[in-house]
Write a structure and sequence with these properties.
This protein is α/β, with parallel strands linked by helices. The protein folds into 2 domains: 176 residues, 3-Layer(aba) Sandwich (Rossmann fold), CATH 3.40.50; 211 residues, 3-Layer(aba) Sandwich (Rossmann fold), CATH 3.40.50. It is 33% helix and 23% strand. The chain has 14 helices and 21 strands. Helix 1 packs parallel to helix 9. The longest helix has 16 residues. Bound molecules: cytidine-5'-triphosphate (CTP).
């Protein structure tokens, strides 16, 4: 899919810059024309000669080429490109891109680029976790850029954590997928909530539920593999997901999930509310452990948690699609219809604990989809990944046509 594509590869000053040589090679091998732009610091980590040799084009780094006085036009470059990749993207360049600090050729070209921009962060785990970096990445995402999530593993500092630039092979896969017309969720932004929420009673105890998060994670993977950029807001689950198209935000309580969803909803095309959100939290949460021997058994005062799906339904913009789930034990259809209307959903995925193979902790599910236009589709019991496929097929066919 990359054959004949014009790709700008922006390289910034981080140790992962050495991987950029493989990236250029793989892109060229796939048939792309590659123009490398380096920040001045990047040249401390890898020689421009290596990259110009591999790409077959002089590397651009300055606004003017010193010996000829020729002006390197960031505007022309921005128009030439079919895609721009910044890999590795340091915290500093990410901050400059997010805030429009155009003090080098790379950021200036980024601001002029008409094509999709992919950013592959690489930095130490603490820098990656820092709220400033997080905010800047969120800003870049909200402007429509594609963030290729870094992988977890041993970093150059020998610390272990998330921050390692995604491998060049996987970056090429993401680009390839972008240009692959058969990916029907390409460029779509999907927010998914998954898993349970835990509501604290005291520092060691909580109220929770049996949700495993499996259906939500299956949906996240299905959407990402079909080309979507997924924001997965996950409650406490023991599941892993490794896909460069998935940005995972871990939360514990319903309040945290509510905040994470509202902070990220604006730029989404679709929101799928798959989490089993606790309906109540403890009003009189204690800051010390409740002791068995001291005093009478405590009385927990419960108050309602925010209804996250309803809050999204209230701010839903035209064109945004909102999908809910309902797990019921009785009066299934009546409750599902009520939720569909009350939460302003486009469709609801109903499953009943009465059905064998449906519900918490199992790998299968049996669902019925009820749409706001009154249509209903009943599916047989299937693996949760296949259920995710059915849901995304319907989403695509009926709600994301244009
Ligand atoms: N939901 C939510 N926030 C809540 C409760 C539910 O976002 N506080 C979402 C769920 O993720 C699901 C849908 O709303 O998509 C229905 O959830 P469910 O728990 O079945 O419904 P409730 O509104 O909580 O009603 P009840 O528990 O009385 O059945």
């Amino acid at each position: 899919m990359l054959a004949g594509k014009n790709i700008i590869l922006g390289i910034t000053g981080g140790i992962a810059a050495y991987k950029a040589a493989s990236l250029v090679r793989l892109l060229v091998k796939a048939g792309a024309e590659v123009q490398v732009i380096m920040t001045p610091n990047a040249k401390e980590f890898i020689a421009p000669l290596t990259l110009s040799t591999l790409s077959g084009k002089p590397v651009i780094s300055e606004f003017f080429t010193a010996n000829t006085g020729q002006w390197n036009s960031h505007v022309d470059l921005g128009l030439w490109a079919d895609a721009m990749i910044v890999a590795p993207a340091t915290a500093s360049t990410i901050a400059k891109m997010a805030n429009g600090v155009a003090d080098n050729m790379l950021v200036t070209t980024y601001l002029s680029a008409k094509a999709p921009v992919f950013v592959a962060p690489a930095m130490d785990l603490d820098m990656f976790k820092h709220p400033t970096t997080k905010r800047n990445l969120d800003l870049l995402r909200s402007y429509g850029n594609h963030i290729i999530e870094p992988a977890a593993g041993e970093l150059a500092s020998h610390l272990i954590g998330k921050g390692r630039m995604e491998e060049p092979e996987n970056i090429v896969k993401v680009l390839d997928a972008y240009f692959d017309q058969s990916l029907d969720m390409k460029g779509r932004r999907v927010l998914i909530t998954a898993g349970p929420t835990y509501e604290k009673i005291d520092p060691v105890r909580f109220i929770g539920n049996f949700s495993s998060g499996k259906q939500g994670f299956a949906l996240a993977l299905e959407c990402a593999e079909r080309g979507a950029q997924v924001t997965l807001v996950a409650g406490p689950v023991s599941l892993a997901i490794e896909h460069p198209g998935v940005n995972r935000i871990d939360v514990t309580s319903a309040d945290e999930m509510h905040r994470a969803v509202l902070d990220n909803i604006e730029s989404q095309d679709v929101a799928i509310m798959c989490a089993a959100v606790a309906d109540y939290k403890v009003e009189n949460e204690l800051d010390h452990k409740i002791k068995r021997e001291k005093g009478d058994a405590p009385t927990l005062v419960l108050v309602k948690n925010p209804d996250i799906a309803k809050a999204v339904g209230a701010v839903k913009k035209p064109g945004q699609v909102l999908v809910g789930f309902a797990l019921e034990t009785d009066n299934e259809d009546v409750y599902a219809h009520e939720k569909l209307a009350k939460k302003n959903l486009d469709f609801i995925v109903l499953n009943s604990l009465k059905d064998k193979g449906a519900g918490f902790q199992v790998d299968t599910n049996k669902v019925k989809i009820i749409e706001s236009d009154g249509s209903e589709t009943i599916f047989p019991c299937k693996d949760k990944r296949m259920v995710a496929k059915d849901i995304v097929d319907l989403l695509n066919a009926k709600y994301l046509k244009s």
